[in-house]
């Protein structure tokens, strides 16, 4: 049985929750391997909408074991708030497993995230202010706090003291903020220990044993390829590896156990926060995409920047991730447009680039070269077979498939979980 990695192919918000939901009951484990509560999945089941931030979307599927693995940074307060909200709506959350090696987001991480972003002024990155970056920085600096530390008060206190020795100097002397007390951090974290203990496991061992037992494991990436700390539009990126390679380091499952990589790509492009975005629209077309696609952040509520489909980015994602299958979402949002432009290459100061420029300055100044495709006016939300789509919609899908470097195996045609056209099985 397979190990499958599911990632975003653009700048996030592509609809990864829908793709996870498509695999449904055929998956035994769903693993979040990177990021924290700085991004969200929206899953629609019947007339109910669920907005998930820290939890893997597989928690909504009965029988699936959801896992938060070692590559994630965990805000424990958010974890329990989210679990409580789901429980109140009748969702069984009892099977959740959390890696003992996952790092913890503390109050001082959130404080530092907000004050440092403000300090950057015009150079702001667009962070959500939830402490993700500072928590990952502490991890790399080897002064982080892990989930397992919450079960040993002496170790926890020593680590918090060591972290605050430096951070309080920064807060007080540079940012003119109050010092944070060791006791307030330790007491808060210890207050979660008893509730957290039953969920904590050696998740790397659990997942490898599951694969040995022919179980199907889905690794669900937060954020997306163009936000990857190594392969994205640095420095306007997240603080973790959101590409398929991050599934191995973020879970403790070896790369040679991964059978398939599914990338989710929207039928147009969106981005939240600062950074280059070649196909961004500032006219009524951009407003149309934002309104029709309800392009507002699941976690932040921020309006998303919108633009046309960018084929070089899709090809880049296919290459970086080793994509075997794309899931194309929100095709229905394009309904009603007379023509639909697709970016096929870039112009940078008179030079054509058919691939994403490696030089960030070139990418920042890239002007899209478009090819236009005829639109359609028919309602496609009821389509369940590819042949149900209007001819122009079929042609659009086939054209972007040819440009993107991997087959379009499924096509989202509406917000509901059933509103999808499957061309090739994802398992």
Q: Brief description of this entry?
A:
This protein has helices spanning 16-23, 76-88, 107-120, 132-140, 153-174, 182-190, 193-196, 203-212, 245-249, 284-292, 311-321, 360-364, 391-404, and strands at 3-8, 29-32, 41-45, 48-52, 65-68, 73-74, 97-99, 103-104, 200-201, 217-220, 260-266, 269-271, 305-307, 309-310, 325-329, 339-348, 351-353, 367-374, 407-412, 420-422.
Task: Explain what the structure shows.
There is one protein chain. The protein has 427 residues and is α/β, with parallel strands linked by helices. The chain has helices spanning 16-23, 76-88, 107-120, 132-140, 153-174, 182-190, 193-196, 203-212, 245-249, 284-292, 311-321, 360-364, 391-404, and strands at 3-8, 29-32, 41-45, 48-52, 65-68, 73-74, 97-99, 103-104, 200-201, 217-220, 260-266, 269-271, 305-307, 309-310, 325-329, 339-348, 351-353, 367-374, 407-412, 420-422. Strand 3 and strand 4 (48-52) form a beta hairpin. Helix 3 (107-120) packs across helix 4 and helix 5 crosses helix 6 (182-190). It is globular. The mean pLDDT is 92.
User: Based on DSSP secondary structure assignment, what is the total number of beta strands?
Assistant: 20
**Helical/strand content category:** alpha/beta
As a whole number of angstroms, the C-alpha radius of gyration is: 22 Å
Spatial strand arrangement across the major sheet: 9-7-5-2-10-1-11-15-19-20
Low-confidence stretches: none
Give the integer mean of the pLDDT values: 92
């Amino acid at each position: 049985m397979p190990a499958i990695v599911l990632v975003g192919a653009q700048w996030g918000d592509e609809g990864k929750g829908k793709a996870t939901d498509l695999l449904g009951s055929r998956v035994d484990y769903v693993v979040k391997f990177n990021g924290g509560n700085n991004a969200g999945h929206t899953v629609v089941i019947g007339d109910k909408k669920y907005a998930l931030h820290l939890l893997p979307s597989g928690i909504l599927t009965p029988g699936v074991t959801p896992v938060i693995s070692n590559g994630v940074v965990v805000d424990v307060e958010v974890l329990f708030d989210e679990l409580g909200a789901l429980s109140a709506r009748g969702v069984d959350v009892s099977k959740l497993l959390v890696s003992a090696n996952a790092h913890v987001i503390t109050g001082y991480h959130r404080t530092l995230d907000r004050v440092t972003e403000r300090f950057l002024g015009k150079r702001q990155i667009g962070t959500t202010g939830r402490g993700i970056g500072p928590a990952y920085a502490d991890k790399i600096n080897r002064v982080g706090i892990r989930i397992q530390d919450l079960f040993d008060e002496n170790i926890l206190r020593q680590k918090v003291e060591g972290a605050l020795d430096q951070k309080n100097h920064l807060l007080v002397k540079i940012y003119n903020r109050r010092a944070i007390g060791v006791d307030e951090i330790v007491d808060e974290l210890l207050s979660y220990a008893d509730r957290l203990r039953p969920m904590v496991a050696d998740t790397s061992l659990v997942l490898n044993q599951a694969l040995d037992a022919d179980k199907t494991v889905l690794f669900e990436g937060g954020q997306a390829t163009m936000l990857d700390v190594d392969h994205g539009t640095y420095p306007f990126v997240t603080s973790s590896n959101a590409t398929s390679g991050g599934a191995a380091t973020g879970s403790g499952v070896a790369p040679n156990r991964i059978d398939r990589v599914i990338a989710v790509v929207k039928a147009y492009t969106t981005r939240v926060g600062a950074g280059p975005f070649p196909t961004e629209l500032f006219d009524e077309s951009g407003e149309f995409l934002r309104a029709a696609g309800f392009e507002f952040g699941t976690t932040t509520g921020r309006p998303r920047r919108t633009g046309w489909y960018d084929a070089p980015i899709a090809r880049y994602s296919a290459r970086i991730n080793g994509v075997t299958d794309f899931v194309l979402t929100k095709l229905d949002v394009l309904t009603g447009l007379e023509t639909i432009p697709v970016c096929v290459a870039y112009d940078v100061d008179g030079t054509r680039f058919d691939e994403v420029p490696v030089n960030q300055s070139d990418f920042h100044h890239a002007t899209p070269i478009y090819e236009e495709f005829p639109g359609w006016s028919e309602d496609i939300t009821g389509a369940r077979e590819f042949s149900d789509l209007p001819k122009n919609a079929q042609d659009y899908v086939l054209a972007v498939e040819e440009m993107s470097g991997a087959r379009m195996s499924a096509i989202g045609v509406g917000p509901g979980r059933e509103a999808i056209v499957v061309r090739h099985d994802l398992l």
